[in-house]
Amino acid sequence: MRTMKKLNFVILATGLIAGAANAQLRVEISGVGSNQIPVAVAAFVDEGQSPTKISQVIKTDLERSGAFKVIDAGTVSDINNIDLSSYKGRGADALVVGTVQKGANGAFDVRYKLMSTVQNSKLSQLDQQAPAQFTRLAGHKIADDVYEKLTGVRGIFATRIAYVTQQGRSYRLEVADSDGDNIQLALSSNEPIISPSWSPDGTKVAYVSFEQKKPVIYVQNLITRQRTVIANEKGSNSAPAWSPDGSRIAVALSKTGNTQIFVANSSGGGLRRVSNSSGIDTEPQFSADGQSIYFTSDRSGNPQIYKMSANGGDAQRVTFKGGYNISPRVSSDGKSLAYISQRGGAFQLYVLDLASGQELRLSDNTNDQAPSFAPNGKYILYSTESGGRKALAVVSVDGRVKQRLTIQAGAIKEPTWGPFMK
Hints:
The protein has helices spanning about 55-65, 85-90, 135-150, and strands spanning about 1-5, 25-30, 35-45, 70-75, 95-100, 110-115, 120-130, 160-165, 170-175, 185-190, 195-200, 205-210, 215-220, 225-230, 235-240, 250-255, 260-265, 270-275, 280-285, 290-295, 305-310, 315, 325-330, 335-345, 345-355, 360, 370-375, 380-385, 390-395, 400-405, 410-415. By secondary structure, it is mostly beta strands. It has 2 domains: about 30-150, Rossmann fold (3-Layer(aba) Sandwich); about 160-415, TolB, C-terminal domain (Neuraminidase). Strands 1-7-6-5-3-4 form a 6-stranded mixed sheet. Strand 29 and strand 30 form a beta hairpin. Helix 1 (about 55-65) packs across helix 3 (about 135-150). The longest helix is centred in the middle third of the chain and has 17 residues, at about 135-150. The protein is globular. Its main location: periplasm.
């Protein structure tokens, strides 16, 4: 089936954010999936005229997913006349081929085909018109299509991540591609920035800034750079989290004494309290359907994760293993809960199957923080520490595939994985 698709470059035009970051993320990959799919990827015809070697972006994306064994197919000069049996003989179940042509307007026409060597047929085709600065994105989109057609799960290579870097007294809120490339600066400050959280449409980020010498919650439009104050109440304002429809933001405020959960309009105003305990209730996260809020509370004596209606009311305890569980994050399908658990003196990433109650430890490190699901629910991004140095890590939900993202100088922390883009 032929698919025609033109990339939406308006919403994704984060190049409008002033000041690209200097430090580049370095990605290290370890581990593979349990059943890797062998895929041959050919160099795209005339891709040398593009600022991006698109076939290399595709190869790297597929390799770091852990789901594929990538085979170098060399160059295919005629993508309409291919002997698929030769690639099947090399062990490939599928073949990726494509062409790149520069148009009169300076944009590039990127065409690709995914061929099945097993069925001797075409599985997918995608045509894109990409301005020069978005040719990497075109490669990510193709990798997403390959991933989805061969696994049945939507790919996340064209998504974005946000995180905070710290070097001395300099803090930067940055946005990057999911592979750590194409870094853009959203905010720079001499005071701490914490708890970034993506809006469901990927155009805004909520975060906490200490630039007023106290924690204040803002929402920033990544395209216009307009900022809106969501909560600047007496005491601490922290832990913003968006509702799935983008209309509300849950926050943790200490305005009433002990920290409690409140919900505000995402445009500002409409603040109302939804938790009411004698303990500390914090780190709210909406459920996938927006009807409930997961949060951390010490109402049982030690921090544990609870769930209540998004309108408030009685709460039910969710975590029972381990005496210290914090930072709940819910997968997009509502089936899994990621969190940080302290056991044996180590803070480590766990994932809980909400239906069965079965949990799995995903990290061997000792100081993990701030988990965030990929929008397809198959990977978790989090902050960790090794050798006294803060870094970001990505792990598949089965624990088999692991990535590590570092920068040359300073610390990198407070990660959040952005949504699928339209």
